Amino acid sequence: MSLQYTPQYKSIQNYIYFIIMCFLVPFFKRYLNRNPRRFVFLTHVPSVALVLAGTKFFLFAEMLYVVPQIISTGSVIYFLLWLLSLFIAYNIIANLLAAHFTDTSVGSLPKERQNPKPHEEHMWHFCYKCKKMVPPRSWHCKLCNVCILKRDHHCILTASCIGHNNHRYFFWFTFYLAFGSFLVMVTNFTAIVVNKRSFLNYYARAFVHPEFLLPKKTPVKSLENIEHLDNFLDLLYFLSVLVAAATGGGFVCQLMTTYIKGDFMPKYKRQYHLGTRKTFQLVLGKRGFWTFLAPNLKSTLQHDGTIWKTNLDSKVMESEV
């Protein structure tokens, strides 16, 4: 008997997921503050492994079993899709590794820049954890246990803090992750429309019995009698709704937290905003959007992460002119 979903059930289900995420976020933050090292071990390894394994799985699942349901494997389009898929997978993994191994801490600065110059002292602040002066926009990370240049956040998917030196890699990592997910959604939806229920049966059987994917001259007769296949498909749908609701609930909670913090810090919130164009120039470096090609493409940043212009400085310069 397949799972039945009513509008009332869906609304209650989403409400429960939202409440769970709103309670889980504070719980994890409290656990992080009490056991930072254990939190790193419990989150970093599974998260990175999930990204690497998921990228590999969807690459081969899509190109070997989904896309052939739509177009011929001997066509030029199929070959081009292979190149595009490999390009996306490479940028996901390579940018993840680049973001992880790039040192963006205050300690990465040259020794002569780890102390403020006389005219910069009023902009630097003292970190009581590191017990030294740090540049503006640099904040201490409890998980990394160092101060990070232009610290944005600590990302468990890259197992590192995102800051001045590796923000470019994180940007392209998330971009290709989203782009790849979009292509997976499009190809799966197209295959479902083209092949209707038969494609779903094929995909479910392959999931339950991996040997179904192996090339055989004769079909396996036992697979024709798989029981409760509809229930299994309903389970897949349920898991998809669960993941989407959990992710969406966590995102909404994070937005609420960010909005509340922004109300308490309205001046700081917009202090360093110089416009979208200049922001991309600061993050991507001199080569700009050409960095989408590969993380090993050198693109020198505009400064070392210690000198930050504010929109107040820009307004003063405009008034003087």
UniProtKB/TrEMBL annotation:
It is a multi-pass membrane protein. It is an enzyme of class 2 (transferase). It holds the Pfam family DHHC. Its EC number is 2.3.1.225. The chain crosses the membrane at residues 12-32, 39-59, 79-101, 169-194, 235-260. It catalyses: L-cysteinyl-[protein] + hexadecanoyl-CoA = S-hexadecanoyl-L-cysteinyl-[protein] + CoA. Its main location: membrane. The keyword Magnesium does not apply. Residues 123-233 form the Palmitoyltransferase DHHC domain. InterPro entries: Palmitoyltrfase_DHHC, PFA4/ZDH16/20/ERF2-like. The keyword NADP does not apply. GO terms for molecular function: protein-cysteine S-palmitoyltransferase activity. It is found in: Membrane. Keywords: Acyltransferase, Membrane, Transferase, Transmembrane, Transmembrane helix. It comes from the Eukaryota. The DHHC domain is required for palmitoyltransferase activity. Belongs to the DHHC palmitoyltransferase family. This is Palmitoyltransferase. It comes from Drosophila ananassae. The gene is Dana\GF23939.
